[in-house]
Amino acid sequence: MADGYSCPACGSANAYHDGSLWVCPDCAHEWNPDTAGAEAGGEAVIRDANGNPLADGDSVTVIKDLKVKGSSLVVKGGTKVKNIRLVTDATDGHDIACKIDGLGAMNLKSEFVKKA
């Protein structure tokens, strides 16, 4: 380990550099040392598909058609969603809670939206 990074999840000293991320082979945790300080402080940065940071109350635009699970409805690409709420403890990857006109309340993944 060249730069002395240890895994923030398990504390292992076996971490190695892979591209822009560090990887722990013991627990399979991956992290970026540039954003690790923000995440360690309790504030994970949620970013859109273009890498722009999102905040509560932002407006976003859906970038591709998304099927609604358990329904025949589709959220069309280009749909603007206003007043989003970020969910930092989302275990399923859906880190945006919102209401979409005509569809109601739902959760979205930040990788499928861009900041409006």
Automatic annotation (TrEMBL):
InterPro entries linked: YjdM, YjdM_C, YjdM_N
Record-linked SUPFAM superfamilies: Prokaryotic SH3-related domain (SSF82057), Zinc beta-ribbon (SSF57783)
Sorted UniProt keywords: Hydrolase
One Pfam family this sequence matches: Zn_Ribbon_YjdM
PANTHER family: PROTEIN YJDM (PTHR30305:SF3), PROTEIN YJDM-RELATED (PTHR30305)
Chain ranges of the Protein YjdM C-terminal domain: 46-116
NCBIfam families assigned to the protein according to its UniProt record, in alphabetical order: phnA
Domain Protein YjdM N-terminal: 7-32
Segments forming a coiled coil: none
Record-stated family: Belongs to the YjdM family.
Species classification: Bacteria, Pseudomonadati, Pseudomonadota, Alphaproteobacteria, Rhodospirillales
Protein known as: Phosphonoacetate hydrolase
Superkingdom of the source species: Bacteria
Molecular function terms from GO: hydrolase activity
Transmembrane segments: none
